[in-house]
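Collaborator request, handled under Task 6.
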Amino acid sequence: MIDPEGRQLGIMPPDLAINKAIELGLDLVEISPESRPPVCRIMDYGKYKYSLKKKTAEARKHQGSTSIKEVKFRPKIETHDFITKVGHIRRFLAEGHKTKVVMMFRGREITHQEIARKIMARIVEELKTSNSGTVEQLPKLEGRNMIMVVAPNAGATNAGASKPVVSPAASLLSVPPDDSSSAASPPVMPPLRPAPPQS
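C-alpha cells returned to the collaborator:
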C-alpha cells in the first residue's frame, strides 16, 4: 500500500488498509489490480478525478492547436488557383498549423511526376520568399498522390497571411516540353494571359 505522500507502507490486510484511509479522512483506491498482491493508494479520489479531467482537457486543447491542415493541387492547376492555394497554405502556417500539400494525379498524369515536383518546388520557394514555413517532409509518392508536409517558421505571424504575394513562381506553371521528348509529351498548361483592359 502507498500513503498520500507516495511512501510505501508495505503489504497489509484490506481491513487495516481501509481503517487507515478512514483515519486520514481519505479514500483507498486500487491503482494496480493486476499486481499480486494488488497495489492500493490512500488519496482524495475526488481531487484525483478532477486532476485527470484537467490533464485530459489540456491534452485535447494542445492537440487541437497543432492540427494538420491539407491543401490539394493538380499537375494542370491554373495560375490563379495556384496563387489562391498558396495563400491558404500561408494562412494555415501563420495560424500555427502544419500543412499537408497533396498533389493528386489522374490517369496518365502520374507518369509525369517531374511536373508535380516542379510545382512542389515552387510552393516551397513561395513560402521561403514570404518566410512563412519550412519543409518538414520532402515530397514523396503515396499511392496516386504526392505528399509534402510544411511546418510554420518560429517567427511566422498572422500578418503574413493577410494577403497573397504574387512572385515569379507562377511563371513555371506553364512547363515547356523537353525537346528530346517523344510524341507523348507531358501535359502542358497554357501560358499566362493578361486580363483584358477594363472599359
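The cover message to the collaborator said: "The beta strands are 27-32, 39-43, 68-73, 98-104, 133-142, 145-152. Confidence is low (pLDDT under 50) at residues 159-195. Please let us know whether this matches your experimental observations."
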